[in-house]
């Protein structure tokens, strides 16, 4: 296998790129050596050398602990549990939540063989047992696996023997997405939206 | 902008990847540092250092002239003109054509401002004027721009004053794609297929 075929094969293993689009991407890189190939190599190298997982929350950052865990202006008493770093980024983009995070590294999945041991659940329990956290938001996807994980975590958290009083556990609201038409909504969402109707 | 954001921005400039899929790809790379990120950096580096354009045909290879141009078992008298290296690879995959290639680097396009000067047309004419080539296959896409380019090239080639006799110029056949249903075929293709019908 020559150098180009090897590169195409590796690129094809990225999510969202198949063999065909990997070939297209590689040819594009060859056409834009100075403006794209070289900067891409440099950027990958920088990330490889500089970026690590935060030992506390699992976020990706140039420093460990990460900028969010180090930020003393953020509320250390509120912990938002997410499945992936991408979810953490999504929540940071809206900029509403001012607490800290905990990245599980996935959700429980019987089908994919993901049990509690494969996720950062033990470190989560240790963080909460260490005290100082009064609210946990389970910000997991509204999928079967996401909700299974949320229920499992809620059970485990409620079973903790906490010295410092009660722990508030919540999940994200389910309902009609903003901009959504009722007509196009699935039944499950509509049921949730009706049950959780809010007084005006 | 931090290292990760920079990498996501550069990855998002690859064809087939938008900002969202670039983010996903980068997170995937971070999860598979040893099995994907490191091999990707090495493969990009190898390609950057080793692969170059063939000075004769425009193919990408570790050597210049490329393996196809150096292969004396291939018919130097037959030249297949393609728009891009990807087309050359597609033809090599079927393994039927045993001549040499000429990569134009695109097709004429009034809309995108691509004129004959932007393509490797002058080098193509020089190759043919140098003699030894008896057949030219214009293997360009059956798009408006591809066919415009093929007609333009046919005109230029027929206008050449060749010492060594006649030059056969052909294009790929148009017709019903193998496995194609007539019912789903566009009118243009059906007209071409009917006009070029073949005796059994």
UniProtKB/TrEMBL annotation, chains A, B:
<dbReference type="Pfam" id="PF13662">
    <property type="entry name" value="Toprim_4"/>
</dbReference>
<dbReference type="InterPro" id="IPR015967">
    <property type="entry name" value="Rcmb_RecR_Znf"/>
</dbReference>
<dbReference type="GO" id="GO:0006281">
    <property type="term" value="P:DNA repair"/>
</dbReference>
<feature type="domain" description="Toprim">
    <location>
        <begin position="77"/>
        <end position="177"/>
    </location>
</feature>
<dbReference type="GO" id="GO:0006310">
    <property type="term" value="P:DNA recombination"/>
</dbReference>
<comment type="similarity">
    <text>Belongs to the RecR family.</text>
</comment>
<dbReference type="Pfam" id="PF21175">
    <property type="entry name" value="RecR_C"/>
</dbReference>
<dbReference type="InterPro" id="IPR023627">
    <property type="entry name" value="Rcmb_RecR"/>
</dbReference>
<feature type="zinc finger region" description="C4-type">
    <location>
        <begin position="54"/>
        <end position="69"/>
    </location>
</feature>
<keyword id="KW-0862">Zinc</keyword>
<keyword id="KW-0479">Metal-binding</keyword>
<keyword id="KW-0234">DNA repair</keyword>
<keyword id="KW-0863">Zinc-finger</keyword>
<keyword id="KW-0227">DNA damage</keyword>
<dbReference type="Pfam" id="PF21176">
    <property type="entry name" value="RecR_HhH"/>
</dbReference>
<dbReference type="InterPro" id="IPR000093">
    <property type="entry name" value="DNA_Rcmb_RecR"/>
</dbReference>
<dbReference type="GO" id="GO:0003677">
    <property type="term" value="F:DNA binding"/>
</dbReference>
<dbReference type="InterPro" id="IPR006171">
    <property type="entry name" value="TOPRIM_dom"/>
</dbReference>
<keyword id="KW-0233">DNA recombination</keyword>
<dbReference type="GO" id="GO:0008270">
    <property type="term" value="F:zinc ion binding"/>
</dbReference>
<protein>
    <recommendedName>
        <fullName>Recombination protein RecR</fullName>
    </recommendedName>
</protein>
<dbReference type="Pfam" id="PF02132">
    <property type="entry name" value="RecR_ZnF"/>
</dbReference>
<dbReference type="InterPro" id="IPR034137">
    <property type="entry name" value="TOPRIM_RecR"/>
</dbReference>
<comment type="function">
    <text>May play a role in DNA repair. It seems to be involved in an RecBC-independent recombinational process of DNA repair. It may act with RecF and RecO.</text>
</comment>
């Amino acid at each position: 296998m020559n150098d180009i075929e090897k590169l195409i094969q590796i690129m094809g293993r990225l999510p969202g790129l198949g063999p065909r689009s990997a070939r297209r991407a590689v040819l594009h890189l060859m056409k834009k050596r100075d403006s794209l190939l070289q900067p891409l190599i440099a950027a990958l190298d920088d990330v490889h050398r500089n970026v690590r997982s935060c030992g506390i929350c699992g976020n990706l950052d140039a420093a460990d602990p990460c900028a969010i865990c180090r930020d003393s202006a953020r509320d250390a008493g509120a912990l938002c549990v997410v499945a992936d770093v991408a979810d953490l980024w999504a929540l940071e983009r809206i900029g509403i939540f001012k607490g800290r995070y905990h990245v599980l590294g996935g959700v429980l999945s019987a089908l994919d063989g993901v049990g509690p041991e494969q996720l950062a659940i033990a470190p989560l329990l240790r963080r909460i047992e260490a005290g100082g956290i009064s609210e946990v938001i389970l910000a997991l996807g509204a999928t079967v696996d996401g909700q299974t994980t949320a229920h499992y975590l809620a059970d485990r958290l409620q079973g903790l023997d906490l010295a410092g009083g009660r722990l508030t556990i919540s999940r994200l609201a389910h309902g009609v997405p903003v901009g959504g038409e009722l007509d196009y909504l699935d039944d499950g969402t509509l049921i949730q939206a009706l049950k959780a109707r809010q007084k005006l």
